[in-house]
Each structure stands twice: as C-alpha cells, then as structure tokens.
Write a structure and sequence with these properties.
The complex is a heterodimer of chains A (about 475) and B (about 100). With about 475 residues, chain A is an alpha/beta fold. Chain A has 18 helices and eight strands. In chain A, helix 17 links the parallel strand 6 and strand 7. In chain A, about 55% of the residues are buried. By secondary structure, chain B is mainly alpha-helical. The longest helix of chain B has about 40 residues. Classes of the chains: A alpha/beta (about 475), B mainly alpha (about 100). Chains A and B meet through helix 1, helix 2, helix 3, helix 4 and helix 8 of A and helix 1, helix 2, helix 3 and helix 4 of B.
Chain lengths: ~475, ~100
C-alpha cells in the first residue's frame, strides 16, 4: 500500500514516459526506444494502481486473469494482422478505448465510493460532469469507430449515407446531450445517465455514416483524437495525472493528424464532417468527353523498355498498390532497375493510403529503405528532371486538374507533378475515375502510357521483361 | 483562499495539450501510422480506472454490477495495450531491418 501522494508522483512519471514515447517517433532511429518508454510508462501505471489499492483479495486474481485474456487477444491480433489492414485495426482499437471509457464511467457512476467521488445519489458535482462527458465522448468514439471499421473493412459500403435533416438531427442530439447532463447534475438520476450514453452511441453512428471513403484518413485521425479526449475526461474523474496527460497528448495528436490530412486534400475540416464527398457525382458530359479523348496504352514490354533506358525513375504508389498486394513485386522491380544503375525514388502523397503514413509502412514492410521514400514537398521538384514516373495504384493525387481547373472538386489540393516527367507509366485496371469521382487528365497526356492491368500482375510482368 | 485541486488538474491538462502539439508536429510523416497505433496503446492507460472499479468488489461479492463493468473494461483495455504496443513494435522493426541490410 503506497500513499496517494506517492502514487500521484508515479503517475506523473508514467505520463512523462508517454511524452517521451511520442517524442521518439521524430525519427525511425529513436522510435523503438520511444516505444519501450511507452511500455515502461504503462507498466508503472498498472503496478502503481495495484499497490495504491492494496486490495490483494480474490478479486486480484480475477483482475490478472482478465488482464491476461485481453493481453493474449491483443498480442494475437498484433502478430496476425496484415499491414494493409492497419487502418481497420486502428479504427477497431479506437472503438475499444471508447467503450472502455464508457464502462469505467458507468462503474464510477454505480460505485462512486470506490473512486472517492461521493456516494450513490450524491456524487460530487464536478465528478459527475467529468464522468458524463467522458462517457459521452467515449460512446461517440466507440460507435463512430465501429462504423469506420465496417467501412474500411468493406463490410459496409464506403459511399456516404445522407438524408435530409441529418445535420439538424445531429445538432439537436448534441444539444440534447448537454441538456441531459445538466439535469443529471440536478437529479443524479441513473436513467438520465443511461440516456446520455445511448444518445451518444447514436450520435457516433450518425456522425460517421455520411463521410465518404475518400475522407477515411481524416475520420481515423479524428476518432483518434476523440479517444484521447474521452480518456482525459475519465482522467479528471479519477483525478489521475497519467490519464489526463495521455488524454491531452492523444487528443492533440489526433487533431493535428486530422489537420494534416485535411490540408493534403484541400478540404476544410467542417466539410469533411458534413460529409457527402466521394458520392457518385460524375456527370454524363464528363463521360462523353472521356470517350472522345485518345489514350495511349501499352504492355509490360513497353514499360520495361522505357524504364531500362531511363536514368531516373520515380515511383508513385497509392492505395491500389496495397489492395493488389503489389508492394513486394514492386520492390523486386526496383531492385532490378537499381542493378542497371537507374536512380529510383518513391514519392508519397500524404493521403496516399487509408490512414496517415500508411503507404510508408507498406513500403517498409516490402523492405524499401526509408531514405528512398520522400514526402510530397520534398520530391515534387524532381519530377521535371526525371525520365519515368511509375504511378501504381494512385490516381487523384496525381491529377493535374487540381492545379488548372478551379471548377474541379479537388482544385487546390496539393498534387504530385507527375506530368512533368518525360514519360509517365500509369498502372490502372481501367479508366474509371478515382475516389473523388473525377476524370484524371493525366490519362490523356501525350507522354502518358497507360498499362491496363492488375497492379501486381503488371509489375511481375515488367520484372520478367527487365531481364 | 485555497485553490481547488481541479484547477491544478486543468493546468496539467492544458500544458499537456501544448506539449502534445509540439511533440506531434516533430513526428516524421513516415511514422504517422505507428504514431496512431502507439497513441492508441497509451490511451489505454484508462485501464487504471478499470482496475480500481474491478477491485472495488467486496470479498463476498467480487462481481457486482459496478465491478463487472470494470472487469470488461480491463479486457478491452488490455487488448488495446498489448495489441497497440506490439503492432507498433512490429512496424518499427520493419523500419530497422532495411537499414541494417543496406549497411
């Protein structure tokens, strides 16, 4: 049994270790050390909690059993999950944090004495506000993440679901939550507490269903942020510094990532939340134009020939590469090119995957050295001096329309200047537009050679032709 | 006049938001996915609340309504802690392998 003051100091230490864990991620070299800091912080927090309660009865055995069960499930998932499924995994994990926050809040509401928050029906006012906010945000995180998970997993269509009066309904429910919390403070009624949680679950669902597949990177980051605020709310209730610090860190981390993602798509945060983007809004007249324009298409042999005679090649990977699992074949192709003394680099757009940094992880998995992988702003000037751009599975992020046509929905979005390359190889299954639902002008440029095939198969064929 | 302890917690909270702001901006974009998985893992420190709730049962009734919620929350948070840290480790390991191979 340790004193509350000593425990508080240990919680502070674990909070600091969590800060160092994030700090470590500023470079790949220090990142693993950072992760160990995070693990150490977590161990300290858990051990100190046991010591400060000092209740070593039979309950403790059950706590350990449940801890082990959860840990085993978590470890199993962590080792089994393919890297392409990271977005779903993270969405799923967010939902667990949200639900855990809800459950802790419920437990605190039902048994406030255990948390030193007063007695049933007479909970301290501040604690009541904190726990209901924590529970509400947790519930929104939970149901929102479940929807995001289902959309990313493809169980639910990525198309936005909208109906009239949606935003008004959300607004009313949002205000309703605050009104109910106000009455909860006055009456301490259990029923109102449950109602707050149920409405919050509903809000979470309503908030995410109108958001289209293309905006998923923003949604994941946003839910990341929510899970942090939920944790912070519970941290205030439990008067626990580790939880407050962590909640603030995670909350601001998610918010920054949402901001970066929005900026990379030139979309305002509000318009993402309001949703509806990524719906099938391509008009007939666009389709007519497409039919008229000539497209040059080639095969693996042409592509191999072009690349063999190049001195520098820039690879532009997108989510399509991940879906086709082409990253390993791509790596093989690059190895062959490098043997011929061709300079190869990778250009990654911030929203190239389904979550921030997703493409980098996929390339890392295929053993691509991270110093060959460049972000948009670092490599965009190099396209003009390169011979071949190899676009594989990316589409909207290369569309020059974003720079030229103010009427285009993606106008103003930073794009990769792929068209400035001497020649462009574009691996794609068909001429269909990307997530934004707009035609890519790049297809019809004179220096573009379309390679119509599955990304993986095409890459493998090119590898064969490089010999 | 005494300052309410809530104000101290609020100060910690606000200062941590600022720390988070500066620390996260210094994270390299190529590590944004591990950043999300590790923030996920550390936000599961909410398990401390779950443990308190779970241990609050008396020896006669280990499982009462409140402690059952605590026990379930322990499972959820534990999945997240182990899953989050291990998957982060797995990802970061891939960033290392390449470098060694290259040298």
């Amino acid at each position: 049994m340790i004193s509350a003051n000593l425990a508080a100091i240990f919680y502070l230490v674990s909070g600091i270790l969590f800060i160092l864990a994030l700090r470590g991620l500023s470079s790949p070299d220090t990142s693993r050390q950072g992760n160990y800091f995070g693990i150490a912080g977590m161990i300290i927090a858990i051990v100190v909690t046991f010591l400060s309660i000092g209740n070593f009865s039979t309950s403790l055995v059950y706590v350990v059993i449940f801890l082990v069960i959860g840990g085993a499930i978590g470890a199993f998932i962590a080792f089994k999950i393919p890297m392409t499924a990271m977005p779903e995994l993270v969405a799923g994990f967010h939902s667990l944090v949200g639900l855990a926050a809800v459950f802790v809040a419920i437990a605190a509401f039902l048994n406030p004495a255990a948390f030193n928050l007063g007695n049933v029906g007479d909970i301290k006012l501040a604690s009541l506000i904190e726990m209901s906010i924590g529970a509400a945000v947790g519930a929104i995180t939970f149901s929102g993440s479940i929807i995001a998970f289902l959309k990313l997993r493809g169980i639910m269509s990525g198309a936005p679901i909208t109906f009239s009066g949606q935003h008004i309904l959300n607004l009313i429910l949002g205000i309703g939550i605050f009104v109910l919390i106000f009455y909860l403070c006055k009456t301490q009624s259990t029923n109102i507490f449950w109602t707050v949680i149920v409405i919050s679950f509903l809000v979470g669902i309503l908030l995410i269903i109108p958001i289209g597949g293309a905006d998923m990177p923003v949604v994941i980051s946003m839910l990341n942020s929510y899970s942090g605020w939920a944790a912070a709310g519970i941290g205030f209730t439990l008067e626990n510094t580790a939880l407050i610090i962590t909640g603030a860190l995670v909350g601001s981390s998610g918010a920054i990532l949402s901001y970066i993602m929005c900026k990379a798509m030139n979309r305002s945060f509000v318009s993402v939340i309001l949703g509806g983007f990524g719906a099938d809004n391509s008009t007939e007249d666009k389709k007519d134009k497409k039919d008229q324009k000539p497209v040059k298409s080639g095969n693996a042999e042409d592509a191999a020939f072009l690349m063999k005679n190049a001195s520098s090649v820039i690879i532009v990977p997108g989510y399509g590469m991940a879906v086709a699992q082409a990253q390993h074949a791509l790596r093989e192709m690059v190895d062959k090119l490098k043997k011929n003394d061709i300079k190869v680099t990778y250009a990654i757009h911030p929203v190239a995957g389904r979550m921030p940094g997703h493409m980098n992880v996929l390339l890392a998995e295929a053993n691509v050295p991270y110093d060959e992988v460049f972000e948009l702003e670092d490599i965009n000037n190099d396209f003009a001096n390169s011979d071949v751009a190899f676009v594989i599975g990316a589409n909207d992020v290369t569309n020059p329309v974003a720079k030229t046509d103010p009427k285009s929905p993606i106008f103003g979005m930073p794009v990769l200047d792929v068209e400035k390359c001497k020649s462009v190889l574009f691996v794609k299954r068909s001429l269909s537009p990307g997530y934004a639902g707009i035609d890519n002008e790049l297809f019809y440029k004179d220096n573009t050679l379309m390679l119509f095939a599955d990304a993986k198969k095409m890459t493998e064929d090119i590898v064969k032709n490089l010999d | 006049m005494e300052i309410d302890p809530f104000i101290f917690r609020l100060s910690i909270f606000i200062l941590s938001i600022f720390i988070g702001y500066y620390v996260v901006w210094s994270v390299t974009p190529s590590l944004h996915t591990p950043l999300m998985s590790v923030t996920n893992a550390i936000s599961s420190v909410i398990i401390v609340g779950a443990i308190i709730a779970a241990l609050a049962g008396t020896s006669e009734s280990i499982f009462n309504t409140s402690s059952i919620f605590g026990f379930i929350a322990i499972i959820l948070a534990a999945i997240n802690i182990f899953g989050g840290f291990l998957v982060t480790q797995r990802m970061l390991q891939m960033y290392k392998k390449k470098k060694d191979k290259k040298k």
